[in-house]
């Protein structure tokens, strides 16, 4: 293979893996390989570390229950976000429709004042 004149950017993961696997072969001069491929030696070192980390993570055994817990955790997280939104909506409604107890002229009868914007309406307790 003829050495490349300039250094290039390799975005294709298959191409990166091919270069990393070639560098792991016994007796391969990494500097010469990098010159032939047109990459920096530090790039090759970084790609090799990433490939080994990825292989290690994929080879770790995850029990079936752990995967199910992850799905359950995602479901609970979505449900929690939904409930937070509902709580926010209800808090806004309550702040708009604040209830305060007001004693009426008739002893024993209680009315509530509902504040909604500018108007205040008085409703008997039995109508709420």
Polypeptide structure, described:
- With 128 residues, the protein is an alpha+beta fold.
- The chain folds into 3 domains: 13-59; 62-94; 97-128.
- It has 4 helices and 3 strands.
- It has helices at residues 13-23, 30-37, 41-59, 64-96, and strands at 98-103, 110-116, 119-124.
- A 3-stranded antiparallel beta sheet has the order 1-2-3.
- A hairpin with a 2-residue loop joins strand 2 (110-116) and strand 3 (119-124).
- Helix 1 (13-23) crosses helix 3 (41-59).
- The longest helix has 33 residues, at 64-96.
- It starts with 12 loop residues before the first helix and ends with a strand.
Rounded mean pLDDT score: 76
Number of domains: 3
Q: Give the strand content.
A: 5-15%
Order of helices and strands: HHHHEEE
Oligomer: single chain
According to DSSP, the number of beta strands is 3
Low-confidence stretches: 100-105
Strand order of the largest sheet: 1-2-3
Give the overall shape, derived from the CA principal axes. Answer: elongated
- Class by alpha and beta content: alpha+beta
Task: From the alpha carbons, calculate the radius of gyration and give it in angstroms.
Answer: 34 Å
Distance between the termini: 87 Å
For the report, how would you describe the main beta sheet? 3 strands, antiparallel
Total helical segments? 4
User: What's the helical proportion of residues?
Assistant: 55-70%
